[in-house]
Amino acid sequence: MAKKLVGKVAIVTGSSSGIGEGIAKKFAEEGANVVVVSNRAVENGKAVCEQLCKMGSDAIYCQMDVSNPDDIERLFSTVMKKYGHLDILVNNAGGQVASPFGKTTFEMLDQDMRVNAFGPFVLSQKAAECMGEKGWIINTSSFRSIDPRPPILGYCASKAALNNITQALALQLAPRIFVNAVLPGFVETENYKKFDAALKESWVQQTPIKRFVTPEELAEVYLLLATTEILTGTLIVADGGFSLLGR
């Protein structure tokens, strides 16, 4: 079967581990040249990049803080100097500040918004400038954008803002660029190992498919959205049915 992304250049932010790493590997498998991006996890990001190169991708690694406009400028300058064009942007990097409602500060809210909404907005601006006749932007939102929880209200609100940005950009950039978002639920990443086993089991039991989604499975959704020419402004909830139950 022919590879679907041969010759394409894809930026995947937050790709040093977890969901982003799964996306980067899937895109490399399909022939894309992938720009691996992380902020603090530099060594992990470089290791992922090395794996992609062994898979045949002309991959590069860039360290970047998505909330820093200067870093964003540097990223796109590097990409255009290396490849001369861009086809796909995956805004996957994100962050979460957990705090009780009464103790949540402006600075906490600002951090959530800068990382989860403002950064992807600016990245999308720059990507649109670099894309040719066609391009694809995929945002990683969260099922918590439609099923919020009090301890992470800033995170939930910022991801809801990202949903709105996704749909507004889909209108703004059509018909040249397709803009969609994925709303993952519980995904079996390294991050989930820190949670108590009983708590994780309770999440599984509340999920209709009775298990967590894997990064590899989720990457298939991103591959679809990196190749489609009929979906734009779509919010795909990939949470195994958890949010359907309204818990």
Keywords:
alpha/beta; seven-stranded parallel sheet; 7 helices; globular
Name the shape in a single word: globular
Main sheet specs: 7 strands, parallel
Structural class, from secondary structure content?
alpha/beta
Can you count the helices?
A: 7
Radius of gyration: 17 Å
Please give a structural write-up:
- The chain has helices at 18-29, 42-54, 69-83, 106-130, 153-173, 197-206, 215-225, and strands spanning 9-13, 33-38, 60-63, 86-91, 131-140, 177-184, 235-238.
- It has 247 residues and is α/β, with parallel strands linked by helices.
- Helix 1 (18-29) links the parallel strand 1 (9-13) and strand 2.
- Helix 1 packs across helix 7.
Gist?
By secondary structure, the chain is of the alpha/beta class.
Q: Helix and strand layout, with pairings?
A:
Blueprint (H helix, E strand, L loop, with lengths): L8 E5 L4 H12 L3 E6 L3 H13 L5 E4 L5 H15 L2 E6 L14 H25 E10 L12 H21 L3 E8 L12 H10 L8 H11 L9 E4 L9
Parallel strand pairs: 1-2, 1-4, 2-3, 4-5, 5-6, 6-7
Helix pairs in contact: 1-2, 1-7, 3-4, 4-5
